[in-house]
Amino acid sequence: MKPKIKVGFIYNYCTDVSLTKTFYSEMIGLEELQFNNDPDSAWKWVVYKSDELQLMFFQTDDKPEDFPQIPVGFGNLPGDGVGDHLESSISVTGHNHESFKSTVEKIQKSSFETQSENPTWRQDSYWGFTVKDPMGKTVEICWEPKDNELDIEVNWPK
Asked: For the chain, how many structural domains are there in total?
């Protein structure tokens, strides 16, 4: 029997694990597994679970300008095709209409940089809202309405 091979962990580095936690836990709503910001600890981290995958962020004392991977502008997402460059990015799914709307509103009121003022209709199949995480990575928040959930228009409903 062939073993089921899968990705288990994705490792990321950040300069502020508390701000990263605020973004992914409070703004985006990912399921947080662990958080360590103990000043006496050699490592500080926050870990999220998405199905079987764990997304991990480790704090480093490097300055943001020392990170060669911090992009300028937004990554080009396949769903919207309006980014500035190619980069690895994250799409967050699983929202219903109310949770998507609430997430968008929280981000709009925050200092996190967004690609557009409001969500956009993408690929004739879902609403997307693109934002940068604290390290400048492009993150797409997605909501795919069910047929009976909302009359779809090309403009974001107020």
From this structure: 2
